[in-house]
Amino acid sequence: MDNIIKKAIEEHRTAIVSVKKNTQKIKEVANLLKKTIKNGGHIFVCGNGGSSADSQHIVGELRGHFEKERKPIRATALTVDTSSITAIGNDYGFKYIFSRQLEALSKKDDILIAISTSGNSENVLMAIKKARNLGVKTVALTGKGGGKILKFVNYTLCVDSKRVSRIQEVHELMFHILCELIDEDIKKIKNENNRNHTRT
Description:
5-stranded parallel beta sheet
């Protein structure tokens, strides 16, 4: 039992190093998200299994708030509409459950955050390809070297681990960092607006 606990902690520590390696990319993704939010764009998120739950978690942080009070951010998890998912899956195939929704809901310069611990989930890959065709920017949270989706996305945040649980843990940390960067930017805008109001 102790060995399992120790191993899990050590694996987690090793995987966390991926965050430091991805520092520049995290800043670039944060800037992309902030630009999209300022321009009234929409953030879509998709993934399977645990990554589906992460998609909903992410959207909850954006629509609600992270740690600071702010206006809700336009965001949608493509994993929650069971009627659409089952209809599309039944009529077109499971690999189209995200791409079909994205085609219906998105517009140019929106963002798709695609989560796949392997980087090889076919329905996630199809969503990314559809996003490219629609002019939707793409961000992938992945692991295990990045997988097939690497060559199709604009930005990749890849966790240096082959174990799904560790990858998912670091994905959550990465997105919490992105949320904090978004909140900080909104705080700066508010402070600047307050200064301008004081001057007038």
